[in-house]
Specification:
Length: about 240
């Protein structure tokens, strides 16, 4: 198992670091895991890019200080604040691109559930109506700040498959809910896609830690699992580097 840590100094270089996970798995036959804090951005899905008002949505992101880009996996737009929002990815070698999709989603979901439980939360599968990046593989929690009255999405999971490797990846919202909602609401409004800002949650608002470094370590451990031969590789700056 290869564990990649850190963040490269530009958006483009950092994307290449994640794409390389697929090459590690496909060419070398070695699973690879990365959990990191991406640069400040709104990452749009391919379906977003097909919409008539996509350019307006990109401008809405830019106007709030978030760089817009189009990502390789996933559905609708996701925001990363550059400091607390985490991304995760696990690549593994595969023999048949037609097999194993459901099983990979199930393993990743179970691993993220275990990580959130370790952090003191009680995650449930699924998401509230009109959530950001709506999909069938999401985790939500009851938000402590609402007195237990509201369930909010904090994890989204997607998958990409190519010849020789599959990548299960996603987003984890750790803190800074107000700013994330503040950019996603106008972005989704510009796209003409329903979004209920109150459905956006964070680990911190649900009563967990607000420290992304602590959350990153717990998620990385869960994704690595019981692998015994683990090699570490640092790719850039920050506290996430190999140490």
């Amino acid at each position: 198992m290869r564990v990649v840590r850190g963040r490269r100094d530009t958006l483009a270089a950092d994307r290449d670091a994640s794409r390389r996970l697929l090459s590690i798995a496909a060419d070398g036959g070695e699973p690879a895991v990365r959990v990191w804090t991406p640069h400040r951005q709104v990452a749009f899905g391919r379906r977003d890019a097909c919409l008539e008002r996509y350019d307006h949505a990109r401008e809405a992101a830019r106007g709030r200080g978030f760089s817009p880009l189009e990502r390789d996996v996933g559905g609708r737009a996701v925001a990363y604040d550059g400091t607390t929002t985490l991304a995760f990815a696990r690549a593994e070698p595969i023999a048949d691109i037609r097999a194993g999709t459901t099983e990979r989603y199930e393993r990743a979901t179970a691993d993220l559930e275990r990580a959130l439980d370790t952090l003191g939360l009680e995650p449930t599968r699924g998401e509230p109506d009109d959530s950001f990046c709506p999909g069938t593989h999401s985790l939500s929690v009851v938000d402590a700040s609402t007195g237990g009255r509201r369930r909010r999405k904090i994890v989204g999971i997607a998958q990409r498959v190519r010849r020789g490797a599959a990548l299960v990846a996603g987003v984890v919202l750790v803190a800074n809910r107000e700013e994330l909602a503040g950019v996603l609401e106008p972005v989704y409004d510009a796209l003409g896609v329903p979004l209920e800002p109150a459905s956006i949650g964070t680990i911190a608002d649900a009563g967990g830690p607000a420290d992304p470094a602590k959350v990153r370590t717990v998620i990385e451990d869960a994704l690595v699992g019981d692998a015994t031969a683990v090699s570490l590789e640092g790719v850039g700056d920050g506290d996430e580097r190999c140490h």
